[in-house]
Write a structure and sequence with these properties.
- The structure is a single chain.
- This protein is an alpha/beta fold and 194 residues long.
- The chain has one domain: 3-Layer(aba) Sandwich (Rossmann fold).
- It has 7 helices and 7 strands.
- It has a 7-stranded mixed beta sheet with strand order 3-2-1-4-5-6-7, with helices on both faces.
- Helix 4 (94-99) links the parallel strand 4 (82-85) and strand 5.
- Helix 1 crosses helix 6.
- Bound molecules: 5-O-phosphono-beta-D-ribofuranosylamine.
- 5-O-phosphono-beta-D-ribofuranosylamine is lined by residues 7, 9-14, 86-87, 107-109, 173.
Length: 194
């Protein structure tokens, strides 16, 4: 299976997926990185790993439908089977959703449906929850609302700082996202997970 990864920032999850593919624990090909921030560190990580990159600036396009149809063309040319969001800080629109139904996957740093949206780790920390975690889910038109594929819990101890919780969440993400993607590839996606 051939995946495109969409990312906007640091790309630590992008790097974890690259590493898993290189080790052979994720049997898939990363065909393309799509990035809406040309100066983001994830772009450099992709270049180092010899992964083709398509960057764009959303503001330079008249609408989401316009830039998503350009992305679609890139995905088709790269023969992409599924899309992996890894810190892509933008809602996926109907153009991409219709082109890749049930083939777009997101990682979110909370136990959904708790704490959707931005700053989920901070929100959970400030709410004082004792257990948080990560969620991997199919993407629909909502913000972090699609069907849940897998979740993993992270315990917040009384003496944890926000920084501690962020570190623990990212550690779990880097292990669990590539593992779950491998399971999805083996199980042909929604057939077994719905
Ligand atoms: C991750 O915490 C992920 O859950 C969220 O965005 C963050 C991306 O981090 N959707 P990185 O760019 O992979 O380091």
């Amino acid at each position: 299976k051939r995946m495109a990864i969409f990312a906007s920032g640091t790309g630590s999850n992008f790097q974890a997926i690259v590493d898993a593919v290189q080790k052979g624990s994720l049997q898939a090909t990363i065909a393309l990185l799509i990035c809406d921030k040309p100066e983001a560190p994830v772009v450099e990580k992709a270049k180092r790993a010899n992964i083709p990159v398509f960057t764009f600036k959303p503001k330079e396009f008249a609408s989401k439908a316009v830039f998503e149809s350009i992305i679609c063309k890139q995905l088709q040319d790269a023969k992409v089977d599924f899309i992996v969001l890894a810190g892509y800080m933008r809602l996926i629109g109907s153009t991409l959703l219709q082109a890749y139904p049930n083939k777009i996957i997101n990682l979110h740093p909370s136990l959904l449906p708790a704490f959707p949206g931005k700053e989920a780790i901070k929100q959970a920390f400030q709410a004082g929850v004792k257990i948080t975690g990560i969620t991997i889910h199919y993407v629909d038109e909502g913000m972090d609302t699609g069907p849940i594929i897998a979740q993993e819990a992270v315990v917040i101890h009384d003496d944890d700082t926000l920084f501690d919780v962020e570190r623990k969440i990212h550690q779990v993400e880097h292990i669990f996202y590539p593992q779950t993607l491998q399971k999805l590839c083996l199980r042909e996606f929604e057939e077994e997970f719905k």
